[in-house]
Write a structure and sequence with these properties.
Elements: E1 2-6, H1 9-26, E2 31-34, H2 41-52, E3 62-65, E4 67-70, H3 80-87, E5 99-100, H4 109-122, E6 128-131, E7 153-156, H5 159-165, E8 178-181, H6 184-188, E9 192-197, H7 203-210, E10 229-234, H8 235-239
Parallel strand pairs: 1-10, 2-3, 2-6, 3-5, 6-9, 9-10
Antiparallel strand pairs: 4-8, 7-8
Helix pairs in contact: 1-2
This protein binds 2-amino-2-deoxy-6-O-phosphono-alpha-D-glucopyranose.
Length: 240
């Protein structure tokens, strides 16, 4: 795993945006794997600025998001579809019909999960997958567990994740207890992965990801099996 250590959040956002922009320049019809959470917000701001200046175009880009709460309406202000519209899609020249987020209202998760993975494969696979990391080492909503699921699926959120994400909701009771997420197998199929981590609250997860063990109790450790992963982080996330 290649590591880029940054001075601050601004620099993490800049480095990440540059990697995305370079890919978009080299391959205008690239397939992006996108993430939500607070960490990539700065990167999205930079990408919006670059698009407004005419430095990059989203015209031919297709995107697949990692995850979505379940159940949740796409118009709910805490849905990941809403987040993506607010932070990126509404501000750039992307064709929204080519932006995909797992359906937080699906009645048939098994069928929709398989269809989501098949659609990614049919699009040629994800060229660049952006990831954040949970404080408990989760990736997307692949939570620590005895076993991980390879494909896109519905999962239950851990208490730790519900607590961590309650800051975005009116109360902890409002946080959905389930989510639809790309599986670790879906994520590992991406050609390149860029993981962003910022702050001391991510240090334990980052440290476990970088040690020598691979374990389902820290899903991020599986990323060590991928041959093109870049961790972009600050010193606090890396060193504590
Ligand atoms: C959320 C998301 C993840 C994200 C992580 C970290 O629950 N499902 O995709 O990477 O938690 O979020 P944040 O960047 O806000 O710390």
């Amino acid at each position: 795993m290649k590591i880029i250590v940054c001075e601050n959040y601004e620099e993490i956002s800049q480095e990440a945006a540059k990697l995305v922009a370079d890919l978009m320049t080299a391959k205008p019809d690239c397939v992006l794997g996108l993430a939500t959470g607070s960490t990539p917000v700065g990167m999205y701001k930079k990408l919006v600025e670059m698009n407004k200046k005419g430095e990059i175009s989203f015209e031919k880009v297709t995107s697949y998001n990692l995850d979505e709460y379940y159940p949740i309406e796409p118009t709910h202000d805490q849905s990941y579809r809403y987040f993506m519209n607010q932070n990126l899609f509404d501000h750039v020249n992307i064709d929204k019909s080519k932006t995909f987020v797992p359906n937080g209202l699906t009645k048939d998760p098994a069928k929709e999960g398989a269809a989501y993975d098949a659609a990614i494969d049919a699009a040629g696979g994800i060229d660049l997958q952006i990831l954040g990391i949970g404080q408990n080492g989760h990736i997307g909503f692949n939570e620590p567990d005895d076993a991980l699921i390879a494909g896109t699926h519905i999962t239950s959120l851990t208490e730790n994740t519900i607590e961590a994400n309650s800051r975005f909701f009116a109360s902890k009771a409002d946080v959905p207890t389930q989510a639809f997420t790309m599986g670790m197998g879906s994520i590992m199929k991406a050609k390149k992965i860029v993981l962003l981590a910022n702050g001391t609250n991510k240090h334990a997860a980052v440290a476990q990801m970088l040690d020598d063990k691979i374990t389902t109790s820290c899903p991020a450790t599986f990323l060590k099996l991928h041959k093109d992963v870049i961790l972009i982080c600050d010193k606090a996330a890396l060193n504590g």
